Automatic annotation (TrEMBL):
RagB/SusD domain sequence ranges: 366-495
Protein name: RagB/SusD family nutrient uptake outer membrane protein
Source superkingdom: Bacteria
Location of the SusD-like N-terminal domain: 65-220
Family recorded in the similarity comment: Belongs to the SusD family.
Species, as recorded: Sediminibacterium roseum
Protein's cellular compartments: Cell outer membrane
């Protein structure tokens, strides 16, 4: 019997001569033609696709890679963890790997994204032939298409030109593929989302938590189109979400209070659903890294692994309600002691540390909180629409209405009128930085607009006094281990 195992795009084929295994129906993995014959098997195959997403975010890598590279948050300055912040990584990711931190690096994104894509491809190919309820079968295929698009988007925004995988790997030869231009990658992402939109149901109160819906596909379509510079297309799809009337903005407090995440669903279109449990697939290192070390009002115990630049906090208006998740003190559980800013983490040279509380959960099990990780929410639809409208039609009344909806919720009033389209778009980018800090978004706003070269060097402190990204840092290098395993895979030109 031939058994196939995947690590990223590399493929290992093992053989066994066990005649008993040849006679058995293989259910040990989803990568087999014998699967998908029943509705329950189709559901299990889809669960495996979501599983890759949860493994990706359990590691924390999508947020760590983005946040530690940008101008809002930074990691504790230790070997292997500081490489993203000082732009000292290489195609081997040698420092991260040798220090056991590859799961915090772009390598983890590459590996888990392609595992998810492979799992999705089997669902998309096999489930159409499954004998089951037609509506649910279509939804399963739609969810797999959505997730395949999400994984390809995760790869494109991090690595640029990557391998497009749209068929299941049933042979060794099929495992090896060339990279495609980033424009073609976005073509495939959008094609998958267009198809997913026709198959997925609208959001409803009965929607299973954490599952993709038609509106999630529309918003991911809008965001991918914005990243690809297809502004009119981004605007149309953001408007679809806004006019669906399926979602509404909730208060900032409800949005980021762990105990109120069911209330937050009114705004959140798609999230990684976590819980304060010992089940590792329902945990994430993000909670652990954002909490101070001793048990506190943040967690039962954290790593003190990442903090906010004080300059970023100071860029926000005092009245901005989003500032309530930034703090310069915390309360230690033992003795109910308030720990001052200078003592938040004495291991660092920087003393004006700021804690980020979007993943704060006093009811955490150990260091792991129940806060969901938001991947798509309604505020993004408003700000995508504002940016795309300004780029397409200028700083119109509609553009102002979109951005002011988010500003109004934050209690900072309307944006000053009469701005030029260029200044208006810059204002949207600044608004996005205040709205989505700590959610793994900022780095990609800086790279897609090529502002990272001028903005990032201004985000410094005592631990990181100099930060000098180069043009090649717009995209991360393809992991060398994958190039070594795939004779058709080449390195990004800037990293050769």
């Amino acid at each position: 019997m031939k058994r196939i195992f995947y690590t990223g795009l590399s493929l290992i084929v093992l053989f066994t001569s066990c005649s008993k295994m040849l006679d058995e129906k293989a259910y040990s993995g989803i990568y087999t033609k014998d699967f998908y014959s029943t509705a329950s098997e189709a559901e299990s195959a889809l669960t495996a696709v979501y599983g890759a997403l949860y493994v990706m975010y359990s590691s924390g890598s999508p947020l760590f890679v983005a946040e530690w590279s940008a101008d809002q948050m930074f990691p504790r300055n230790v070997v292997g963890r500081n490489t993203l912040t000082v732009f000292s990584y290489d195609p081997l990711y040698s420092v991260q790997t040798s220090n056991g931190r590859s799961n915090e690096s772009p390598v983890e994104i590459w590996k888990t994204a392609y595992k998810g894509i492979e799992a999705a491809n089997w669902v998309i190919e096999k489930v159409p032939g499954t004998n089951m309820d037609t509506v649910r079968r279509n939804a399963i295929i739609g969810e797999a298409l959505f997730l395949r698009a999400f994984f390809h988007w995760s790869l494109a925004k991090n690595f640029g030109s990557v391998v497009i995988k749209t068929s299941a790997t049933a042979s060794v030869d099929a495992a090896f593929n060339e990279r495609s231009p980033v424009e073609k990658v976005y073509d495939q992402i959008i094609a998958d989302l267009n198809r997913a939109e026709t198959l997925l149901p609208d959001y409803a109160a009965s929607t299973v938590k954490g599952r993709a819906t038609k509106q999630a596909a529309q918003l991911l379509h809008a965001k991918a189109a914005l990243y690809a510079g297809r502004n009119a297309e981004a605007l149309v799809n953001a408007q679809k979400v806004l006019t669906s009337n399926k979602y509404s903005l909730v208060s900032n407090t409800d949005l980021f209070t762990a105990a109120k995440k069911d209330v937050a669903r009114a705004e959140v279109l798609f999230a990684v659903e976590l819980s304060n449990t010992t089940n590792p697939i329902r945990q994430s290192q993000i909670h652990y890294f954002c909490a101070p070390i001793p048990p506190s009002d943040y967690s039962k115990g954290g790593a003190g692994g990442m903090y906010v630049y004080s300059a970023f906090m100071n860029s926000m208006a005092t009245a901005d309600k989003r500032r309530e998740f930034l703090a310069t003190t915390y309360t230690q559980t033992a003795g109910n002691v308030v720990v001052p800013q200078a003592s938040i983490d004495t291991r660092l040279a920087t003393k004006d540390l700021v804690l980020m509380g979007k993943y704060k959960d006093p009811a955490a099990v150990g260091a792991y909180g129940s806060n969901n990780i938001y991947l798509l929410r309604l505020a993004d639809a408003y700000l995508i629409a504002a940016e795309a409208e300004a780029k397409t039609n200028g700083a119109t009344i509609n553009a102002y209405n979109y951005i002011n909806a988010v500003r109004g919720r934050a209690n900072i009033g309307n944006l000053v009128s009469g701005l030029s389209p260029t200044v208006f778009v810059d204002s949207v980018l600044r608004e996005r930085s205040w709205e989505f800090y700590g959610e793994g978004d900022r780095w990609y706003d800086l790279t897609r607009t090529d502002k990272f070269l001028t903005v990032v060097p201004t985000a410094v402190n005592a631990d990181y006094p100099v930060r000098t990204p180069l043009p090649k840092h717009k995209y991360f290098p393809i992991p060398q281990i994958e190039i070594n395993a795939n004779p058709k895979l080449t390195q990004n030109d800037a990293w050769k």
